[in-house]
TrEMBL record:
CDD domains listed in its UniProt record: CAD1
EC number(s) reported in the record: 1.1.1.2
Reactions that this protein is recorded to catalyse: a primary alcohol + NADP(+) = an aldehyde + NADPH + H(+)
Protein name: alcohol dehydrogenase (NADP(+))
Molecular-function GO terms, alphabetical: alcohol dehydrogenase (NADP+) activity; zinc ion binding
Transmembrane segments: none
Keywords: Metal-binding, Oxidoreductase, Zinc
Family label: Belongs to the zinc-containing alcohol dehydrogenase family.
Keyword Oxidoreductase appears in the UniProt entry: yes
Cofactor(s) needed by this chain: Zn(2+)
Species of origin: Rothia koreensis
Coiled coil residues, start to end: none
Domain Enoyl reductase (ER): 12-343
Amino acid sequence: MPISVKALQKTGPDAPFKVATIDRRDPRPDDVLIDIKAAGICHSDIHTIRNEWGEAHFPLTVGHEIAGVVEAVGSDVTKYKVGDRVGVGCMVNSCGECEECRDGQEQNCTRGGMVGTYDSEDVDGSITQGGYSEKVVVNQDFVLRIPDALDFDVAAPLLCAGITTYSPLATWDAAPGKKVAVLGLGGLGHMGVQIAAAKGAEVTVLSRSLKKEQEAKELGATRTLATSEEDFFKNHRGEFDLILNTISASIPVDKYMSLLKPRGVMAVVGLPPEKQAFSFGSVIGGRKAIAGSNIGGIPETQEMLDFCAEHGFGAKIEKVSVHEVDDAYERVVAGDVKFRCVIDTSTFADAEVEA
Ligand code: NAP
Ligand code: ZN
C-alpha cells in the first residue's frame, strides 16, 4: 500500500504552492522510509518549478535538501535502522553498474543518468517527488548519515549546497596558500566560503554589493569585494587561483576570467537558464580553464557531512513554514536570504490540504 503524505505542490509554473497529499511507494526491501524534519530551498528548485530549465512535469513537489529520521526500513536494508538521523540530496537512484557509479560518481551515471530526487523518471516509470513533504521513501544506497553534531535544519542544505561546493573545492584544491574567490554569496556561496576557509584557503567573496560583508567575514572570508565598484575588473586582475562561480544569472564571463592568475580555474556550479558566452582568448591566454561541476557522488557527500561536523559548521539558515514558501522564493531570487531558507516540516501538521 502506498503511503499518503502531505507535500507542497505546484500545478504549473505560475501557480502558488498548495498543500496536497501525494503517494510515496510502499518501501521495497532495500528502501528506507524517512520522516522529514527539514527541507532546504535551493535555487535549482526555483529554476525547475518555474520552467526556467525546460518543461517540468506537473503537478510537482520539489526539494532535494532533505534531513530527517528513519521511520521504517525494508527487509534487506543493512545500512540504516529505525531512529537513525539521515539525509537525502539531489539523487535517489542510478544504474549502480557503469564505471562512474562504481567509482562513487553516481551523479555522472552513463546508463540512463542518475534519477533526480524530483521531476525525474523513477525506475518504476513514475515521476519522482521531492522533499517539501512530510516523508520520503528512498533506496538505502542514496541515503546519507547526518552526524549528531549537526541539527536537521542546518544539515539539510548541506545535501545540495554543501556537496556542490565541497566537491569542486576539493577537486581544484582549495588549500593553504591558494587564493579562492567565491562568486555570489547565496545558499551555495555561503557554504563555499565556509568550506574553502576550513580547508585553509584565503577566501574572497565577490558579491554585487558590500551588503553582506560582515556575514562573509563571520563565515571565514578575509574580504568582500563589490563587483559593482568602479574599475572592479581592472583593480583585481590576475588575483585568484580559483573562482567558484555560484551565480544563478547571466554574467560577463570574460571579465571574470581576467580575475584569474595564469593557470587559474573557474569552477562553474551556478546554472543560469540562459546560455553564457565567452571568448577562447580568455582561456588560451594564461592557459586558464573553465570547468563545470555537478553536485558530487554519495561517498564524497558523506565525507562532506563529516567534514562540516568536524569543523563545527552547517548552513546559516532562515526557517520558514509551509505557508511561507512562495514568499521565500521571491526573497531567494532577490538575493535577500541569509543564506538558505529551510522549510520547517513540522508546520505540515496543522496545514489543511487544499483541493
Ligand atoms: P542563491 O541562493 O539564489 O544564490 C545565488 C547568488 O548569485 C545570489 O546570492 C547572488 O549573490 C548572485 N546573483 C543572483 N543574481 C545575480 C545577478 N543578476 N548578477 C550577479 N549575481 C547574481 O542560489 P543557490 O541556491 O546558491 O544556487 C546558485 C546556482 O547554482 C543556481 O543557478 C542553481 O541552480 C545552481 N546549482 C547548481 C548545482 C550544481 O550541482 N552545479 C547545485 C545546486 C545549485 P550576491 O547577492 O552575493 O551578489
Ligand atoms: Zn540544489
